[in-house]
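Inverse folding, one chain.
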């Protein structure tokens, strides 16, 4: 039997909503048919091939593309069942279980706006670049403060060296400037390692427990594996931080700004809205929280 392609279709239990079909079974992800920000469309949902067949199906309480699931059955109390689990091909279970995709090619014209929403393979909407940027700014402020405190604790001489460099520059003492600049360069690796470690501990602590840093919490997004929901496992979380190691590698750290810029702009044109560090880690950033205990 040919399977219906994954996508947004009429929700069998609610004519006002769409439900995401993942190519095998119905998911729990729904959305309104009409965009709340667009004027109502005059498009009509596709009509059933036979009015007699539709009438018969409605009489028997079986949902069709134009007849919603009767209230009080199906989705209200039980999740959908995949085809082949105790039901014949093309039939619906008595408890509203669905094993077969809707028999029409796509969402109705009035819901065409839904086709522009990018989702994960199992139908969860992906976070927009704007939300990701807002989360990054919030986390950036927090991490700047934390990194400063860590450097004060573990590399206090670095700040003394910077103060001496500023003082020598104000006196225009070129010899001393060159000497102090060499000291700053010598401390760069240690400073970079402390900063990278601070950011990594911060990220791993939140990614592997809540799947949300404070910045992501504030804007309502979270990070998950591409192939499954839930907080990240420790290996995926570490892989997601590998790209940032370039900032402390000698002879390469000077190019890190270019990599950093490309990394955070990449979701603007990527089909899966992944940044480069998402591709390395096998992750995606989605709207909403992650279920606990599935990482």
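Residues assigned per position:
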């Amino acid at each position: 039997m040919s399977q219906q392609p994954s996508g947004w279709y009429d929700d069998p239990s609610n004519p006002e909503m769409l439900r995401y079909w993942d190519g095998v079974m119905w998911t729990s992800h729904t959305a309104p048919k009409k965009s709340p920000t667009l004027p109502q469309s005059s498009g009509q949902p596709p009509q059933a091939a036979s009015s007699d067949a539709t009438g018969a199906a409605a009489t028997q309480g079986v949902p069709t593309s134009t007849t919603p699931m009767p209230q009080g059955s199906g989705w209200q109390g039980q999740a959908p069942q995949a085809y082949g689990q105790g039901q014949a091909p093309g039939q619906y279970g008595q408890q509203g279980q669905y094993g077969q995709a809707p028999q029409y090619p796509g969402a109705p014209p009035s819901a065409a706006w839904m086709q522009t929403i990018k989702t994960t393979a199992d139908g969860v909407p992906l976070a927009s670049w704007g939300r990701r940027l807002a989360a990054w700014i919030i986390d950036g402020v927090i991490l700047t403060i934390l990194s400063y405190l860590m450097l004060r604790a573990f590399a206090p001489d670095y700040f003394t060296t910077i103060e001496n460099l500023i003082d020598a520059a104000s006196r225009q003492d070129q010899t001393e400037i060159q000497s102090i600049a060499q000291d700053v360069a010598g401390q760069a690796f240690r400073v970079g390692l402390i900063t990278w470690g601070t950011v990594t501990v911060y990220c791993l602590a939140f990614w592997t427990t809540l799947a949300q840093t404070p910045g992501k919490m504030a804007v309502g997004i979270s990070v998950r594996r591409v192939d499954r929901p839930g907080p990240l496992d420790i290996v995926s979380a570490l892989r997601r931080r590998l790209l940032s190691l370039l900032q402390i590698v000698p002879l390469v750290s000077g190019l890190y700004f270019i990599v950093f810029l490309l990394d955070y702009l990449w979701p603007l044109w990527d089909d899966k809205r992944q940044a480069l560090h998402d591709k390395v880690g096998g992750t995606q950033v989605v709207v909403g929280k992650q279920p606990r205990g599935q990482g």
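The longest helix spans residues 174-207. The radius of gyration is 27 Å.
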